[in-house]
Design goal:
Elements (H helix, E strand, L loop, with lengths): L1 E4 L5 E10 L2 E11 L4 E5 L6 H8 L7 E6 L2 E3 L4 H6 L2 E4 L11 H8 L10 H10 L16 H14 L4 E5 L7 H16 L3 E5 L3 H7 L2 E6 L2 E7 L5 H9 L21 E8 L2 E8 L4 E5 L6 H8 L6 E6 L2 E3 L1 H7 E4 L3 H5 L6 H6 L7 E2 L2 E2 L1 H14 L16 H14 L4 E5 L7 H16 L4 E4 L3 H7 L2 E6 L2 E7 L5 H11 L6 H8 L3 H6 L4 H17 L9 H26 L7 H15 L6 H27 L5 H19 L4 E3 L2 H7 L2 E2 L2 E2 H19 L1 H11 L1 H6 L4 H27 L1 E2 L6 H12 L11 H20 L4 H26 L4
Parallel strand pairs: 4-9, 4-10, 7-8, 8-9, 14-21, 14-22, 17-20, 20-21
Antiparallel strand pairs: 1-6, 2-3, 2-5, 5-6, 10-11, 12-13, 12-15, 15-16, 18-19, 22-23, 24-27, 25-26
InterPro entries: AAA+_ATPase, ABC_carbohydrate_import_ATPase, ABC_transp_permease, ABC_transporter-like_ATP-bd, ABC_transporter-like_CS, P-loop_NTPase
Pfam family, one: BPD_transp_2
Organism: Mycobacterium yunnanensis
Length: 829
């Protein structure tokens, strides 16, 4: 809703204020951005920059203030509306969905018009080529490096040719060539009239790109100026509120004949080879090179996260990977994916690796823990409402400080930091440098990898430059300069392929992509079904009979429809425990209407009542989860109990026989093939198509993959979740129709067992318990495989107890294997 014109501006924010739990994030902030300019926004972490841009892009609703876009006042701004107004944002933490492919990430985030100019794959490839991203369109995004995820995020931002482009720390993980590409793209869109809001902590970028600059501190505007009219010193004073004499602490003065406290000899591992180095107490070792040449892999090995050969000696003790895993501290480049447990509090995250030091006997002393964490966080000036606040509520820089605080609290023998100041403001950088220097002075070996050569020059006593997984030059003393570091890295990597690129090339075959995809569990399950059938058939003449095959497929159809509903719930990261009792209740309802002698009107009315009840149950489940903030288990368990009770109220005992004609129609078959099973297969194929090729399917998977990212790209989370649970219940309705034909009687107790059975079929088919990935085809195969196994127990006379045992064992094994396989694929950084 818009009204009233105000001037010739691209974006104007006037008097914006925002509070979280009573704490002011923004106070009376105003910002004017003109068409065809780059307006830089600077400030410390927690100053309110990202919150302000959240207001501008509709992700954050302000408590007060006026938003004007293109001269029109806008109210009720949300991410979807912002996109329609031509506002695009490149987030500091990429709003990408790890369980979706590169192509699907583009499709779900961008409007359909973007792909209207040609074949979808060709348009998507051109979008990626525009930012130099070479990833295959079918690669799952979780397999991309952190820098590649940022390039994907940048690609989305430029793909829509925005009127207003917000860039939040876009160069933090990028190498020099990618940064140059980004700057060229920014200049191109600015020349066409796009207004760019550029958030950064790097002063050089402000000088190179921006026309005007605004500084925020503590949620307030501290000044706005043209870039040409203000010095770096004046900007720094506005940012930190004080004069900053030096960013870097004094370097270590080497002692004569000092004994090394770190020696690495002949270290080899995935992505690096023959690495040797040594350092004396007080020295900080830097690792440099073009991104993707083995630096991160080396650091992960030194942190015990990767196996290696060679020797690592700290002090007088030699350490293998297992020892380093427990005794070293690692600060990862991707703090959200690897550094933090986002659902835990600030205190819990900081104390996680140091709990033993807070123990008194078998118990943890909360007082000792709290005092130690408070002191550590205070030394890093972490800004948080309280130590009990969720760490996800902190700004990116403050999250990074929590990671560093945890590393120091663990009292490590070796401190390994990968891009430790990425996304951290200039004031906090000085504090982090001081902390790293202090740790080194205490005798803890410190190794730092950074893509910022200037940072390595100012901080490190020696720098190892890597290329193609090897150390190509070691710089010490006066040779540690930005020019020497960059020259060594660029010269040595000319016309070579980075480690990350080689890994991608090795893993980009269609077969590898298939094995890593959603369909591999279903393929494996089909193989196991054939093996099981081959083992049982020779010992039983009736196993492959027409009657037995029909029995298996009919039962699989009933449980399969219910399991397809369960699939939808699990794809969004939830679960629906109510499916079993709902199926039983619907059959009970049918026993009052769909009976012999009933008129067609009565039968139709009964089916409609079943349909309405199913939809209502789904809506209640979704509403309890989204609006009453129940967990999916709590909400659906509530309905599980309630629906079972209603079924017993309607039919205290078995009664009410379903129409014989209806049973015959449901059980109609041609030879061994039930007609209902054919319908089931067609529905599964249709749902699979919608899941892969339609926006609603992408939205469902996006919510389950990463809800915060899904929200930031404009997906309505509440609507998607409620529709998912309604869809789940409607599939239970289809399953109930099958059960009416199979059992033919209103039994209030018959539905409860189908909850476990449906979950088993879904997990067997490869749908993740964590949400975001799965297939309806897999659920179809899972339902048939489950019924085949249960049928085999009957054929082999193993008894009903064996059926429950096998169901439980199957779901446990499938869930464990799938989760372990998924975690081992990991997140590349």
């Amino acid at each position: 809703m818009t009204a009233g014109r105000i001037g010739d501006t691209a974006l104007e924010l006037a008097g914006v204020s925002k509070h979280y739990a009573g704490v002011a994030a923004l106070t009376d902030v105003s910002l004017v951005v003109l068409p065809g300019e780059v307006h830089a926004v600077l400030g410390e972490n927690g100053a309110g920059k990202s919150t302000l841009m959240g207001v501008a892009t509709g992700a954050v609703t302000p408590d007060a203030g006026i938003i004007t876009v293109g001269g029109e006042v806008v109210t009720g701004l949300d991410p979807k509306t912002a996109a329609q107004l031509g506002i695009s944002i490149v987030h500091q933490h990429p709003a990408v969905l790890p369980d979706l492919t590169v192509l699907e990430n583009l499709q779900v985030a961008l409007p359909d018009e973007v792909f209207a100019d040609g074949p979808t794959n060709a348009v998507a490839r051109a979008i990626l080529d525009g930012v130099g991203l070479k990833a295959h369109l079918g690669d799952r995004v979780e397999s991309l490096t952190l820098a590649e995820k940022h390039l994907l995020e940048i690609a989305k931002g430029f793909a829509v040719t925005p009127r207003i482009l917000v860039l939040d720390e876009p160069t933090a993980p990028l190498a020099a060539d990618a940064t140059d590409m980004l700057f060229r793209r920014i200049r191109d869109v600015v020349a066409k009239g796009t207004a760019v809001v550029y958030i950064t902590h790097r002063m050089a970028e402000v000088r190179e790109l921006a026309t005007r600059v605004t500084v925020l501190r503590d949620g307030r505007v501290r000044g706005t100026s043209t870039v040409a009219a203000i010095t770096d010193g004046e900007l720094l004073e506005l940012i930190v509120g004080r004069k900053l004499d030096s960013t870097f602490p004094d370097k270590h003065t080497a002692e004569v004949d000092a004994r090394p406290n770190l020696t690495v000899e002949g270290l080899c591992g995935p992505g690096f080879d023959s690495i040797s180095m040594s350092a004396t107490p007080g020295e900080i070792v830097g690792i440099a090179g073009v991104v993707g040449n083995g630096q991160t892999e080396l650091l992960r090995a030194l942190a015990g996260l990767e196996d290696f050969t060679g020797t690592v000696t700290v002090g007088t003790g030699s350490h293998d990977a297992r020892s380093l895993l427990h005794r070293s501290a690692f600060v990862p480049a991707d703090r959200q994916a690897e550094g933090l447990a986002m659902n835990l509090s600030v205190r819990e995250n900081a104390a996680l690796t140091a709990l033993k030091s807070f123990a008194r006997g078998p118990l943890i002393s909360r007082r000792r823990e709290t005092d130690a964490v408070r002191a550590s966080l205070g030394s890093l000036s972490v800004k948080a409402p309280s130590m009990e606040s969720a760490v996800s509520a902190l700004s990116g820089g403050n999250q990074q400080k929590v990671v560093i605080s945890r590393a120091l609290l663990s009292e490590p023998v070796l401190l390994v930091a990968d891009e430790p100041t990425q996304g951290v403001d200039v004031g906090a950088r000085a504090e982090i440098y001081g902390i790293l220097r202090g740790a080194s002075a205490r005798g803890v070996p410190v190794i730092v990898a950074s893509s910022d050569a200037k940072e390595l020059e100012g901080l490190c006593d020696q720098v190892l430059v890597m290329s193609r997984g090897h150390v190509v030059e070691t710089l010490t003393g006066a040779d540690v300069t930005e020019e020497r570091i960059v020259s060594a890295a660029v010269t040595s990597t000319a016309e070579t392929l980075s480690v990350a690129a080689k890994q991608r090339e090795a893993g980009s075959s269609g077969l590898r992509r298939l094995l890593a995809g959603d369909y591999s569990p279903a393929i494996l399950l089909l193989v196991l079904m054939v093996v099981l059938g081959a083992c049982i058939a020779p010992g039983s003449e009736r196993y492959l009979s027409s009657f037995n095959i029909s029995t298996i497929l009919t039962a699989a159809t009933a449980i399969g429809f219910i399991a397809m509903g369960q699939t939808i719930a699990m794809l969004i990261g939830g679960i629906d425990l109510s499916v079993g009792p709902l199926a039983g209740l619907l059959v009970v309802i049918s026993s009052f209407f769909v009976v012999d002698g009933a008129s067609a009107t009565t039968v139709i009315l009964g089916v409609l009542v079943m349909l309405v009840v199913a939809a209502a149950v789904g809506a209640i489940n979704g509403s309890l989860i989204r609006f009453a903030e129940f967990t999916p288990i709590a909400a659906t368990l509530t309905l599980y109990i309630a629906l079972g009770g209603v079924a017993f109220l309607l039919r205290p005992t078995q009664d009410g026989y379903v129409s014989t004609a209806f049973q015959n129609a449901v059980n109609y078959r041609v030879g061994p093939l039930p007609a209902a099973f054919v319908v089931f297969v067609l529905v599964a194929v249709g749902m699979e198509y919608a899941l892969r090729r339609r926006r609603l399917g992408w939205n469902v998977r996006a919510v389950g993959s990463d809800e915060p990212s899904a929200r930031r790209i404009g997906i309505s989370i509440d609507k998607t979740v409620i529709l998912a649970y309604v869809g789940s219940s409607l599939f239970v309705f289809l399953g109930a129709l099958m059960l009416m034909g199979q059992y033919g009687i209103g039994d209030p107790a018959q539905g409860s067992a189908f909850t476990l059975t449906s979950v088993t079929a879904v997990v067997l088919g490869g749908t993740s318990l964590l949400g975001g990935r799965g297939t309806f085809i897999g659920t179809l195969v899972g339902a048939v495989a489950l019924q085949q196994l249960l049928n085999a127990t009957a054929v082999l006379n193993l008894g009903s107890a064996a059926q429950y045992f096998f169901q439980g064992a199957l779901i446990l094994i499938a869930a464990v294997l799938y989760t372990v396989a998924r975690s081992r694929r990991g997140t590349r950084v």
